[in-house]
Structures are given as C-alpha cells and as structure tokens.
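User: Predict the complex with magnesium ion.
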Amino acid sequence: MPAASIIACAVCRFALGFGDGLERFEFRQAHMGSTIEIVLYTTDASIARRASDAAFARIHQLDLALSDYNPESELSRLCEKAGGPPVAVSKDLFDVLKQSLAMADRSGGAFDPTIGPVVRLWRRARRDNKLPDPTVLDRARKRVDYRNVVLDESARAVALKAPGIKLDLGGIAKGYAAQAARDELARLGVSRALVAVAGDIVVGDAPPGKPGWRIAIARVANPNSPPKRFLILNNAAVSTSGDAERFVEIGGKRYSHIVDPRTGLGVVDRCGVTIVAKTGAIADSLATAVYVLGPEAGRKLVDQIDGAAGLIARSTPNGEQVFESLEWKNVKSVNE
Ligand code: AMP
Ligand code: MG
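Assistant: Here is the predicted structure with magnesium ion placed in the model:
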C-alpha cells in the first residue's frame, strides 16, 4: 500500500510576538480522500513540525484501518469474514464501530454503518448519471442492518452476523480522525490547535489572545459565496453534512451521497446541518444522522445527545429556513 500522497506541506509563520512567544503554524496534507489542515500555536518551528508530523501519521494510520475504498484496509478484511466467527480487531476499529453502533441506536437506524452495499450503488449512479435499478437497490437495502454487527468488548472482537455485510464508516471516520489528531497534538504539548478533515473540525484551546477559533458556516443555497456567520469555539468538535458537494441530479431531482437506510434512496432534502459536540466522532455521526432524519426529527435527536447543539438550514424557493436545537443558543457565534 503506497503512502498517502502529500500534496502540500507548508509551514507559515505569521505575526510574531503573541503572548508567551507563541507563533502560528499551518500544515496541509492529503489523507482520507481529503485535504487535512492543521493550524497550531507553539514556540518554535521544530516543535510544530514534530507535532504535526505525528498528527498526520495518526490520521494515515486510521485511514489504513478504516477506509472502505482500500481493499487492504482492516475494515475491508473484516467484511470479507462476514457471516463467520468473531474477528479480533484493532482498538481504533473497535472504538469507531462501538461509537457507530451507539449513534445507529440513538438515531433509530438513520445512521447505519452497514450502509455500504447501498452507498456503492449510489456511487455508481453518480458516475453513470443513472439511478440504481430498483430490484438491485432493494436487494442491497436488505443487507443493511447495524444490529447484525455484534461487539465483544472483553475479546475486542467483532462478529458480522450475516454474509454480505459491507461496513462504511464514511459518516464518522473523518470526525474520529480529526479528534485523534488533536489528541495526539495535545499529548505532545500543543494544546492550541485546530484539525480540519474536510467538513469535520476539532479544536483545542483558543489561539492566544482570542476567545476561540473562528469557524465559518457555509450557506446552503450558495456554499461558495463568502460566509456571513462564524462560530467561536474551543475544546469542541464541529461537523457539517449536506448535499452541497456530493450529489447526483437525475430527472430534475438531486440525490445526496447520504442515503436513507429505510428507503435506500439518496436524501433529496436540500439541507445543511452543522453540529457542535464534545468529540469529533459524535459531531460527525450526528450530522449525518440529522441530515437523514430531516430538520424536525433531527433537531430532537440533537437535544438528546449530551453536550451537542445543531443548526439545520433548509434551502427553499423563498430562502433559507433555519431550525435550531435547544442548545444552539449557547454556541458562541458572530455575524459579519
Ligand atoms: P458525512 O459527509 O459525514 O455526512 O458522511 C457521508 C458518508 O457517510 C457517505 O459518503 C457514506 O460513505 C456514508 N453514509 C451515507 N449514508 C449513511 C447513513 N445513512 N448512515 C451512515 N453513513 C452513511
Ligand atoms: Mg458525518
């Protein structure tokens, strides 16, 4: 397996003279099919380089374990054993599966890590610009059921109870990886840091002299227009889900890459979901679940998750309709 390609790796020093001699450094690398960005504050370039290298290495390690695109990943090898006896797995794979099943349970199966067979059909639909065949889709949908994934905590083993199970951790792995990278930076003494894995961001302590990290919220109707709203966060995770980037438009309908496990269809609601939560894995999986459930049921789910807050913006012909979870009012933000 070739090492993940590094598209760019820049060290930038901006203003000198933050309190305590802290300087700002930024790094970018490509992993998990995305550009990963790390921003951190520390006293010198060698500490910054060492810490960010370790954080990227951690993300690379997670990609090797969790990717469903890579047939050699630990996840793919586990799926080859579906229908067989339990398989001992790494701590990371066990942890992500455990958190995936927890979100599957909380969301009544709106988030389902066994969605793989259906997602594959929609990936093909995007490529061919053609809806999946209904009979084939129905057959794939019947292979989706998170209750067929059984964990044995004491043996750190996983049993996939039916043949044909295909795990897909695309709705949680980036948030989990962003958190793991931030934790690695903190372990190496760099606590003022931000890790962004595409739309999944985890932040540590605030930049020097600032109340928090400024995180832009893109607008649903026009995601490329300059953002107007910014969250101010520290020691938190924020994830977004929606149809803004990956979708297929067929017969005038726009189907998202996020699939409703109940119907097997790509979600058609034009929504953008932003979730703030305690960890990257919770924020990421909750954002995906809320997008599947839609604004009303979605915000009720957010209200049930300790330490989580959500903003759901639905694009309508009359503009954006906004739904907030109860805790959203306590999330610091500024409008510009
Ligand atoms: P996100 O961008 O975090 O919302 O994750 C989207 C990815 O999650 C998709 O590309 C699929 O790999 C996967 N996915 C799609 N639908 C679901 C679902 N209902 N439950 C869990 N994962 C899903
Ligand atoms: Mg997600």
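The CA atoms of residues 119 and 226 lie 31 Å apart.
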